[in-house]
Prior knowledge:
Blueprint: H1 2-15, E1 19-24, E2 34-38, E3 41-47, E4 49-50, E5 57-60, E6 62-64, E7 70-72, E8 81-88, E9 91-98, H2 99-104, E10 118-121, H3 131-140, E11 144-146, H4 154-160
Parallel strand pairs: 3-8
Antiparallel strand pairs: 1-2, 2-3, 4-5, 5-10, 6-7, 8-9, 9-11
Amino acid sequence: MESLNLIEGVVARMYQCDVTRVSEESQNNEYEGTTLFVGNKSLRIRLAKKTPTKQGYFVVLWEKDDRGQNKPFDAYNSPELLVVCVIDNQQKGVFIFPKVLLVQQKILSSQQTKGKMAFRVYPDWVVELNKTAQQTQTWQKNYFVDLSTDQVDEDRFKRLLSKSNC
């Protein structure tokens, strides 16, 4: 799993610790759906996919309900962070979204919002976006860490991961 390998490598380098309690989410295996812990922080991992007709990268975020129907993840039962990995040839990066933000952006369901089963992410290297995609990229950029270069912003990564204790 590319996304898990990416996260394990970055965590090992920056924190000198391991990820633990790794559990695959079989209903989202095409997007490498995984939950895990880094120190005391619970994370849900997804690998975003490039699509041929639209800019950005597509990621799913759903589970089955009691009747076997797909539904968006809800904030109450979700891990503290959603980590969306983008791996596109030499370009690599992660979005680290806190669940509070995902509720505000109406991605996770809550008492106030229905939630979404999928959405797009737009790393810094994606340009020439339409207005709606630009607005999305604007709020997302504060949660993105580019891992493509030797100049990784480790402080941002650690801040977004909330300085997990290993």
